[in-house]
Amino acid sequence: MLTPAPINLEVVVSPMVDLAIGGQFSPTTATILSGATEAVLVDTLLLADDVERLGERIEATGKQLTTIYITHAHVDHYFGLEALLERFPDARGVALPSVVESARSAHEATREQAKQWFAGSALDCTVLPDAMDGETIILDGHELHAIEVGQADIAPSTILHVPAIDAVVAGDVVYNGVHQMLALSGPDDWPRWIESVDKLAALNPKVVVAGHKRPELPDDDLAAIVDGTRDYIQAFIDELADAENARALVARMQQRFPDHMNPTALIVSANAAVKRKQRGAVGGEA
Ligand SMILES: [Zn+2]
Known about the structure:
With about 290 residues, the chain is an alpha/beta fold. It has eight helices and 15 strands. The termini are far apart.
């Protein structure tokens, strides 16, 4: 007889959206983990319509939402928190202390960014997650482990390991079929991002939910998700070394990753990296 999985994992993906400042924002995930009687949400999405749909999916599980875990302090991963806490007043928003601090330090700037980028379709958020005591969340008796891995698209970044089903909800430590955001970090950070992916891989998960993914892609293609994320960072490092300008870097990366969504993330990353490289070259001659 088949025993049912002790925890059900459902990924809700927001569609790609046009930004008010030009360009597009990548599809983003939130993950609902549900057990016999309880549910835990990982990350919250950001646009009012998406968060509404996410709330409906949580209600559809029929389980009690106890905890909303935030992987890292980016607007697309925690700005739905206030609306969800209103909808599920018995739930608690939590993150590791370093992530709470990271959110707190940038919170007012993040509120401004949400208004400018999404022109009223994003939720405002006036609350922060609470700092966790320890690193464990209990879901119907199963331990979920919050693990700080360090660098991803920003630092500090964390993942949530769900050993009962060999799953990792990875925030932006990994991407799946979407151009990665490398504009918020530099050449010294990129090898550390690869090391963060190594830490995730060492958990030997069978399922890895990426923070940004092509909605139709599966969450168990570890070659695409885990190796793919490392390969993308290494390719960007290699191609940047040879690129004459940002346009050439974008073209080379698009050749190497022709099926990746959202060139805006690549263009922004390439512009930032080439500018930094040119500043470094000028600084080196002085
Ligand atoms: Zn993100």
